[in-house]
Specification:
The chain is of the alpha+beta class and 188 residues long. The chain has helices at residues 2-25, 175-181; strands at 34-44, 49-54, 60-64, 81-88, 93-100, 108-116, 121-126, 132-136, 153-161, 164-172. Helices cover 16% and strands 40% of the residues. The longest helix is centred in the first third of the chain and has 24 residues, at 2-25. This is CSD domain-containing protein.
């Protein structure tokens, strides 16, 4: 009895595996991964998929949560602007390598609340409304600094990523003040 049940489960698993291989192998690169932008029309967090209306032609493309770039809980919000690559899938066009791209045009001023150098990220508090924004170390590399210091005044662009509000294109306003106020290293 147990062996026949086990055999039945193995056969069912093999059918599922074959279906997955068939599904993946029929995804064509026919559209050649053309980059496009669009607006999230709808996205079901429960089901893990939704649709994006393309800016290029107004057509809808399917989007699955696994194709959203980033870490953590991957989801999209209705109305978000996204950039993606278009591929021909089994049931139609699919959006892959999705990146949320909702840049605002104006720059903001903020204060570095916390930066964890060994983890490569931190938070900036926007002066205008006190909102905290995530900042990654890759957003400060162009400044020549490896990390930010608590209390530094910075200027930045805000984007909405899949993690929420994020500070990009960081510019240090008071780097000299922070260095002057810190204790000297190597001097007695």
């Amino acid at each position: 009895m147990f062996s026949s049940l086990f055999k039945h489960l193995i056969i069912q698993q093999q059918k599922i595996f074959r279906l997955q291989i068939k599904t993946l192998s029929t995804v064509k690169d026919g559209v050649n991964g053309i980059r496009d932008t669009g607006i999230v029309k709808r996205f079901s967090q429960d089901k893990g998929f939704g649709f994006i209306k393309r800016d290029s032609n107004g057509n809808d493309v399917f989007v699955h949560f696994q194709s959203i770039l980033g870490t953590g809980f991957k989801t999209l919000q209705e109305g978000q602007q996204v950039e993606f690559k278009v591929f021909q899938g089994v049931k139609g066009l699919e959006a892959r390598n999705n990146q949320v791209k909702t840049f605002t045009n104006d720059r903001h001023i903020g204060i570095v609340r916390k930066f964890i150098k060994n983890r490569g990220f931190g938070f900036i508090t926007r002066k205008s409304d006190g909102a905290d924004l995530f900042v990654h170390s890759r957003s400060i590399r162009h400044t020549g600094l490896e990390s930010l210091e608590e209390g530094m005044e910075v200027e930045f662009l805000e984007i909405q990523s899949n993690r929420g509000a994020e500070a990009k294109d960081i510019r240090i306003i008071n780097k000299i003040d922070c260095i002057e106020n810190s204790s000297p290293i190597g001097f007695f």
